[in-house]
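Hi P.,

Sorry for the delay on this. The queue was packed all week, but I finally got your sequence through. Input first:
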Amino acid sequence: MKIYFKFMLSISLLTGLFLIPATHAAARVMHVPNEYETIPQALSVSQSGDTIKLAAGTYAEAIELMPGVTLSGNDPKTTVITGSPYALKSIITLFDKSVLEGVTIKGATTGVKGAVYVAAGSPRISNCIITENQVPAIFVEQNTSPTIEHNKIFKNARSAIEVTYAAPNISANQMYDNRGFGILVSGALEIIESSVTGSSTPGNTKEKQATIIGNTIENNKGGAIMCQGSSPLIVENTIGNQRGRSIILVKSDAVIKKNEITSGGPPAIYIESGNPIIEENNINGVMRFPIWGKVNTEALKTIL
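Then the structure:
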């Protein structure tokens, strides 16, 4: 009986060992340049969940931030990424669930879509300074939905943020003194809803729109916000003294609500086409024609 009991106990222990679930390696904080000389060296051994922490300094590198990896600067005023002068690449390319925070991005040259390029998924860009680039500061590629928040984007040769067939959440940023628009949004992200199980009928297609909330957008040459074939939610922004029209709508049903708009010239909101909803905005600095174009008066609940 004792031998049998020991045998059964051994079998139970072995079975238990095989049933222990596999665990993933713990997320790491990887320091550059203390542990790794360059950012690409740290990236080469990183995996989802890891954070690459940058010490103060200037880094001349073009970086592809893989899914789930965070690149975090010590302070955007002292941690600068300029990109490689010989590589025709965006300075930073972001993929799904990657995070870029606390750095300055500057010096991107022509030939790329943006200094920061959102390539896939839902990455996050926060607490960065993006300036002195010859291309859009941030370019949001189609079929993505990034979060862009608490950044300062200024003195770029193109727009601060350009969006194409995507649905970013753009909030609490400062965008000023750019030669293009503050935000240029073209097209909407189309989502196919799942069909009923067992049905041969495909799911319905619906559009997911960008949200532009709580930003300060001032002194941009092209204007504050341009919507082409897109209908974003534009709420509680401070828009001031644009060199062009503040908001321009083309084939847009945007919802424009509770914004503070001080326009550099009439009109503050120009509607070429579409049926936007414009309500509860405070428009200053335009004595005549604060809103102009093909205006659907039923959509204008409160102009001033």
